[in-house]
Design goal:
- By secondary structure, the chain is an alpha+beta fold.
- The protein folds into two domains: 104 residues; 107 residues, Head domain of nucleotide exchange factor GrpE (Nucleotide Exchange Factor Grpe, Chain A, domain 2, Roll), CATH 2.30.22.
- It is built from three helices and six strands, in the order αααββββββ.
- The strands form two sheets. A three-stranded antiparallel beta sheet has the order 1-4-5. Strands 2-6-3 form a three-stranded mixed beta sheet, with no helix packed on it.
- A hairpin with a 2-residue loop joins β4 and β5.
- α2 runs antiparallel to α3.
- The relative contact order is 0.07.
Length: 212
């Protein structure tokens, strides 16, 4: 009876040992499976991290390219704005100069047309008169001439100096040469027709004779 009980105890121990070994095996297998899963998860995370890093790098490069394009466009627009502003300033200055010139020389056309009339008055005044009627007419012509000269002077008309002045091709027109040993060469000896200027602009050069 004790022998049977002992055998039974041995059998139960054997069964328990077998179950324990089986449990250890199952636990070992499960542990290995968990390790494999962890490794796979780690690998997946590493791959995902690498992909995200690559995408991040591409995104940075794309941003850099986009920023460079925008900076180039900005520089182009700034240059265009500066050119337009310079053109506007030049146009404004030209407009101001044109307005000033128009105001300064507003009487140029009228005065130019009056020059032949002034010449005729001066020729008429060079005629010598003796009779009383002629002298009265002469005085009337002289009064009109003086009034005309005063009016043109107010508008800026000036007579160009000629006789005794050095010849200046900007204001003198030489039509003949003469010789006078008492005068320096290039001096204007005679004035054949008066020259006029409006302020600093020549309306008609003086016709002169110049010393050789």
């Amino acid at each position: 009876m004790s022998e049977t009980t002992e055998n039974k105890d041995q059998l139960e121990e054997t069964v328990e040992n077998g179950e324990t070994k089986q449990t250890f095996k199952e636990e070992a297998t499960f542990s290995n499976s968990e390790e494999l899963i962890d490794e796979e998860v780690v690998n997946v995370e590493e791959d995902t991290s690498a992909d995200e890093s690559s995408q991040a790098e591409l995104s940075v490069e794309e941003y850099k390219t986009k920023i460079a394009e925008l900076e180039a466009k900005l520089a182009e627009e700034e240059n265009r704005y500066l050119r337009l502003r310079a053109d506007f300033e030049n146009l404004r200055r030209r407009s101001q100069l044109d307005l000033q010139a128009a105001e300064k020389y507003r009487a140029q056309s009228l005065l130019t047309d009056l020059l032949p009339i002034i010449d005729n008055f001066e020729r008429a005044l060079q005629v010598k008169v003796t009779s009383e009627d002629a002298q009265s007419l002469y005085k009337g012509i002289e009064m009109v001439y003086n009034a005309l000269i005063d009016a043109t002077k107010k508008e800026g008309l000036e007579v160009i100096p000629a006789v005794g002045e050095p010849f200046d091709p900007n204001v003198h027109q030489a039509v003949m040469q003469e010789s006078d040993s008492e005068k320096e060469s290039g001096i204007v000896l005679k004035e054949l027709q008066k020259g006029y200027k409006l302020k600093d602009r020549v309306l008609r050069p003086s016709m002169v004779s110049v010393n050789e």
